[in-house]
Amino acid sequence: MGTQIFAEEGAGGGELFTRLFEKDGVGTEMAVDGSSTAVDFDISPPTGKAVILDSLHFVLQGVNFTPNKFGGLSELTNGIALQLLEGTTIIVDFANAFRIKKNADFSLFSEGNIQSFGGGADDMLKATFDFQLSGRLLRIKSTEIARIKIQDDLTPVGLSRFECMARGYLIPL
């Protein structure tokens, strides 16, 4: 498509961009039921600007986490999709159709930057996807959307919190 999705390392220096992925611009809690209809959580830069994204920070909180569960839930059927879109067209599927279905899957994208805390009654998992480690940063234009697509029911007991924060900086287009 000719869209440049990665910025050169060190291209930055703009206004700080820190934003939680949101559903319809209001809700940031991704522990929702997306089993019958997928639920989308998006971020995009303001009009006339691009965001140079350097990292995504996921946090899951709940009970009874193990590597083969998603939070404290059973392994997901459809999984979590990470995408970059322009309008309704998917420009990049970050995992080439691989979906995050269990806690251990976060380690495939986190370059070892994953932490787990707790012990049954109150567990937390924190995973950081750091684009800088690949030597490239993700560039998102004001006409594009970074999306996390929830395609399973994440509402049962076992997952009380699931959010993702994007970090980077804004630059003029």
What summary fits the major beta sheet? 7 strands, antiparallel
Q: Quote the distance from N terminus to C terminus.
A: 18 Å
Could you say which overall geometry the principal axes of the C-alpha atoms support? globular
**Quaternary structure annotation:** single chain
Helix % is under 10%
The structural class is mainly beta
Tell me the fraction of residues in β-strands, as a range. over 45%
Count of DSSP strands: 11
Write the H/E string, N to C.
EEEEEEEEEEE
Mean pLDDT: 85
Unreliable segments of 5+ consecutive residues: 1-10
Alpha carbon gyration radius: 16 Å
- Count of separate structural domains: 1
Task: Give the helix tally.
Answer: 0
Notes on the protein architecture:
It is a single chain. With 173 residues, this protein is mainly beta. It has one domain (22-172). It is built from no helices and eleven strands. A hairpin with a 5-residue loop joins β7 (114-117) and β8 (123-130). Mean pLDDT is 85; it is low at 1-10.
Give the tags.
173 residues; mainly beta; seven-stranded antiparallel beta sheet; four-stranded antiparallel beta sheet; 0% helix; globular; disordered N terminus
Outline the secondary-structure elements.
Elements: E1 6-8, E2 15-20, E3 39-43, E4 49-62, E5 80-86, E6 89-93, E7 114-117, E8 123-130, E9 136-140, E10 144-150, E11 159-172
Antiparallel strand pairs: 1-9, 2-11, 3-10, 4-8, 4-9, 4-11, 5-6, 5-10, 7-8
Briefly characterize the structure:
The chain is mainly beta and 173 residues long. Helices cover 0% and strands 45% of the residues. The two termini are 18 Å apart.
